[in-house]
Amino acid sequence: MxxxxxxxxxxxxxxLFLVSLIKMISNRxxxxxxxxxQRIDHLEKRIEDLENK
Length: 53
Fold this sequence. Notes:
Helix content: over 70%
Order of helices and strands: H
Number of helices: 1
Largest sheet: none
Number of strands: 0
Structural class: mainly alpha
Radius of gyration: 23 Å
Shape: rod-shaped
């Protein structure tokens, strides 16, 4: 009985680890996309300023 409980708890911990890993990766991807969009906006503004000069 104790072995079954041990395996069950191990499986629960493994599932929680995988869920947190997936959330971390998706959050990292979203942050990277947001930063890239901010950089692109900044560069577009610089181009417009240079064209106006």
